[in-house]
Amino acid sequence: LFQTYIFCIFATMNSLKTLNPYFWKHRVLLFWGILFIIASNFFSIYQVQFVGKTVDLIKDVLDDHNVKKEVLFRTLLINGGIIVGTSILSGVFRFMMRQTIIVASRRIEYDLKNKIYKHYQELSLSTYKNTTVGDLLNRLSEDVVAIRMYLGPGIMYVINLIILLIITCVYMLMTNVEMTIWTLIPLPILSFIIYKVSSIINRKSKVMQKSQSAISTFVQDSFSGIRVVKFFNKEKYIEKNYGIKVKDYQDKALDLAKTEAYFFTIIIFVIGLLNVAILYMGGKNYFEGKLTVGTIADFFMYINILIWPFSMVGWVSSVNQRAAASMSRVNEFMDIKSEIVNTNFDNYTIKGDVEFRNVSYTYPNTGIKALDNLSFKLEAGKSLAIMGKTGSGKSTIALLLCRLIDPDEGEILIDGKNLKDHNLELYRKHIGYIPQESYLFSDTIENNIGFAIDHPTHALVEEFAKKADVHKNIVEFKEKYQTMVGERGVMLSGGQKQRICIARALIKKPEILIFDDSLSALDTETEENILQNIENDIKSCTSIIITHRESSAKRADYILNLTEIEVEN
Ligand code: ADP
Ligand code: MG
Question: Once rounded to an integer, what is the mean pLDDT over residues 50-60?
C-alpha cells in the first residue's frame, strides 16, 4: 500500500527523468502553480471550522433561549460571510492553479512533440525501414498524451493531495485526535482499491483502442481497394467481416463500461461507510461529553474534502505507470542516432565530378550485398547511363549518390572530396533525384513541382512542366496547375506522375542529376520528347540515367553495365 504512494511520486521518475529539463524550463509557472495549490487548499480548509462554530451556536440558541437574537444574527452573518468569501478565494486560486500547471504541461507537450518530430526527420532511411508508420505516429500522439497526463493532472493531483493532507491534518488534530484517526485510516485503502480498478480500466481501454484501430485499418483498406471489391463481387463478404469487427469492438467497449461503473460505486460506498463511522464515533463521544455537535459537522466536511483527492491517488498512480511506459518508448526512439550526420557547414560551389572508388554496400536488414567493389569516374557535365537487370544494384547507386545511405567500403568522391566530408545540406541543394517510385504529396500540381525550391514562380513551374512534357496534360484538368493530386486528388497515370517528378527535379537546376528508371512508364515517343527538351539541362550538369532502354542509354556519353552479384549459399 505504502509503495503505491511512493510509486506515484518517485518510482516512475526513472524513465521520466528525461523530463526534468522541461520542468526546469517551465519552473516559474510550476512554482506559481504550487503556491496556488497551497492557497486554494488553505482557504477551503480554513472555512470548515466556521461551519462547526455556527452549528454549535445554533444549538446553544435552541438549548438556551437566553442567547440574544442580535448576537446570533451578527455571528451568523459574519460566519456566513467568511464561508462565502473563503470559498470564492479557494475557487479563484484553484482556477489559477489549473491555469499554471495545466498550461505548463501543454507547453512541455508542445516542446516534446517538436523534439520528437525533429528527431524523426534526422533519422536515416534504414531506421525508417525498421519501423512502421503506425509506430512513428503512436510516439507522437498516444505516447505524448500519456506523458502529458502525468505532467498535468498527474503532478497536480499529487501535490494537491500532499498539501491538502498536511493542512487538513493540522486542523483535524487541533479539533479532535481520536476522530482524526478514524477518519484517516480508511482513506489509503480507498486509494489502493481505486488504483487497482484504474489499472484494469487502463488495460481494458487499451484492448478497446486496439479493436477500434482494427476497424479503421479494415475500412481504409476496403475503401482503397473498392474497385477490386466491386469487380470481384465481394461486397457481402466485406460487410460480414466488418460486422464481426464492430461486434468485437462493442463487446470490448461494454466490458470497459462495466469496470468503469465500479469506479464511482466504490467511492460512493466508501463515503457512505466513512459517514456512518463518523456518525457513530462522533455520537458516542458527544454523549460522553467529549465533543460538540459542531465538531461532528466539521468532520463530515473534512471527510468530504479528503475523499476525492485520495481517490485520485489511485487514478494518478495508474496514469503515471502509463506515462513511464510511454516515456521509455519515446526515450528508446530518441536514443537512435542517425548514421548520416553533417559535420561541414561551409559554403562553396559544387562542380559535379563524380567518382565511385571500390564501393560496396550491404543492406543491413536483409544482408543482401547490393554493390560489390564498384568503381567508375564521371567528369562534370558528362552523362552516364546505367543498365542492368533488376536487383543488380542500380537504385542503390542512386541512394548512395544522394547520401541517403553511406557505403560500407570504399568511397564516393564529389569534386575529388569524399562525400562524407561535404556539407550535406549544400550538396543536396545541388542534386536532382527522380526516384524509381514517383511520390507526390497530397497537394496541388503547382506545389508539387515547386516543392524542390524555396520561392517557385508560376512561370518557372510551367516552364519545367513543359520540359517534362506534362504541361499539355495539366492544362486539360479543370483546375489546371491547382489540381489536387495524391489521396484526395485526381488519379494520375504512372507516366504523368513520373513526368511531374522529373519537372520537380529539374526545377532545381541541379549540378548532378539522377534518373532512376524515371522514364519507364512512358512510351518511346514521350521519352524521346523529354530527352530532347531537357538536352540542354542534361548537358549543363553531370547526369546519371538509370534505364532499361538501349535508345536512351545511347544518348549518354558512357554506359555502365551492371551484372548481378552471384550470391553464395
Ligand atoms: P535495382 O535498382 O537494380 O533493381 P536495387 O539497388 O534496388 O536494384 O537492389 C539491389 C539489391 O538490394 C536487390 O537484391 C534488392 O532486393 C536489395 N535491396 C534493395 N533495397 C533494399 C532494402 N531497402 N533493404 C534490403 N534489401 C534491399
Ligand atoms: Mg531500381
Answer: 83
Question: In this structure, are strands 369-378 and 354-362 parallel, antiparallel, or unpaired?
Answer: antiparallel
Pairing of strands 558-562, 383-388: parallel
pLDDT at 120 over 50: yes
How far, in Å, is the centroid of ligand 2 from the Cα of 546? 8
CA distance 508 to 514: 12
pLDDT above 90: residue 243: yes
- Classify residue 17 as exposed, middle or buried by CB count within 10 Å of its CB (0-12, 13-18, 19+): exposed
Q: Which of 419, 364, 361 has the alpha carbon at shortest distance from 394?
A: 361
> Is the distance from CB of 438 to CB of 501 less than 8 angstroms?
yes
B/e letters for 333-366, b = 16+ CB within 10 Å, e = fewer, are beeeeeebebeeeeeeebbbbbbbbebebeeeee
Give the pocket of ligand 1 (CB within 6 Å): 129, 363, 365-366, 368, 370, 388, 390-396
The one-character DSSP state at 153 is I
C-beta separation of 432 from 510 below 8 A: yes
Nearest-angstrom CA–CA distance, 129 and 396 = 15
Residue with more model confidence, 461 or 132: 461
* Residue 152 in grid coordinates: 498535468
Percent of the chain with pLDDT over 90: 8
Q: Which of 368, 387, 563 to mutate to test the pocket of ligand 1 (most atoms within 8 A of CB)?
A: 368
Q: State phi, psi for 392 to the nearest 5 degrees.
A: -85, -5
The C-alpha cell of 472 is what? Answer: 499539355
Query: In this structure, are residues 421 and 344 in contact, taking their beta carbons and an 8 Å threshold?
Result: yes
Contact by Cβ (8 Å): 517, 350: no
Query: What tens digit of pLDDT does each residue of 87-117 get?
Result: 999 999 999 988 898 898 899 889 988 988 8
Which atom of ligand 1 lies nearest, measured to the CA of 392?
3
Q: Is the pTM of this model over 0.85?
A: no
Centre of ligand 1 from the C-alpha of residue 366, in Å: 10
The bridge status of strand 383-388 relative to strand 542-546 is parallel
Ligand 1, closest atom to CA 125? 23
Residue 315 CA to residue 312 CA, distance in Å, equals: 5
Strand ranges (E), 39-189: none
Residues 6 or more apart whose CB falls under 8 angstroms from that of 224 comprise none
Amino acid 456 reads: P
The closest of 438, 435, 445, 455 to 508, measured between CA atoms, is 455
Cβ of 7: how many Cβ atoms within 10 Å? 15
Instruction: Give residue 137's pLDDT band: very low, low, confident or very high (50, 70, 90).
Output: confident
Q: Which atom of ligand 1 is nearest to the CA of 390?
A: 4
- List beta partners, residue 369: 362
